[in-house]
Specification:
Distance between the termini: 39 Å
Mean pLDDT: 86
Helix content: 10-25%
Number of helices: 4
Structural class: alpha+beta
Shape: globular
Strand content: 35-45%
Number of domains: 1
Strand order of the largest sheet: 3-14-5-6-2-7-8-9-10
Largest sheet: 9 strands, antiparallel
Number of strands: 14
């Protein structure tokens, strides 16, 4: 399957946090810089070596896909990682649909929260063998109606037209990071509209 046609979740066997925004990358990155008061915004960093400092985020959009992805890249004590309120704020600011998504294979957790024009639409929080919570403005579902929670969330992302890649980072001894994007074979710069790097400090 070609990249432009990929939808759903590439892997749940990792720890990832994303905010997906249904808008072009320029609008999303610019809005996120204002929302988070980012002090550094480097554009078009695909396959470039850059110095990463502070709390960082990767913002990218695949070519011929309508959603822009914000990926939590590293964590610095005292800084705030991606949160649900980031999705809600961007949804309100850009008057569009956003999704907050987090998965942890070490913690056995997966969940999402959907907003439209700043309004809450739906959420699902699931922790393996511990907790399950689903709330929606549009539909009523019980746990037993869903079958596999992981399959349900995969189908939800497909319905939203979202593709969630697995991200990798390659670090050299000088402390630089080459941002290669998703873990897909033969990925090239032409597969993206753009990849940007933002930092809070």
């Amino acid at each position: 399957m070609v990249l432009e046609q990929k939808r759903g979740i590439e892997s749940i066997d990792l720890n990832q946090t994303f905010v997906f925004v249904k808008a072009p990358i320029e609008s999303v990155a610019s809005a996120f810089v204002r929302v988070r008061q980012a002090n550094r915004w480097e554009q078009d960093v695909y396959d470039r070596e850059i110095v990463t400092t502070g709390q960082g985020f990767i913002v990218f959009q695949f070519r011929e896909q309508t959603w822009t992805s914000i990926y939590n890249f590293g964590f610095v004590p005292g800084c705030t990682p991606l949160e649900k309120k980031d999705a809600q704020t961007l949804s309100s600011l850009l008057q569009t649909r956003t999704v907050y998504y987090r998965v942890s294979d070490t913690g056995g957790y997966i969940g999402y929260e959907l907003y439209e024009n700043g309004n809450f639409i739906e959420m699902l929080d699931f922790e393996e063998d511990i907790s399950f919570y689903f709330q929606s403005q549009n539909r009523q579902l019980r746990r037993e109606d869903m079958g596999s929670v992981y399959g349900f969330i995969y189908d939800f992302m497909v319905e939203q037209d979202i593709y969630i890649p697995a991200i990798r980072r390659v670090e050299n001894q000088q402390g630089y990071v080459r941002l290669l994007g998703p873990e897909l074979e033969n990925l090239e710069r032409s597969d993206f509209e753009r990849i940007d790097y933002l930092t809070l400090g």
